[in-house]
Amino acid sequence: MKIIAGEARGRQLLAPSGRNTRPPLDHIRKSLFSILAGSFEGQWVLDVFAGAGTFGLEAVSRGASHAVFVDSDRAAIAVLRKNVENLAFVPRCEVIHGDALREPDLASATPGAFALAFLDPPFKMLHDDDGREQVYRRLGEFLTSPALGPGANVVLRQPRKLRREPPFQVAETRVYGESVVHLFERQDPASTTELG
Question: How far is the C-alpha of 179 from the C-alpha of 25, rounded, in Å?
Answer without folding.
Answer: 10
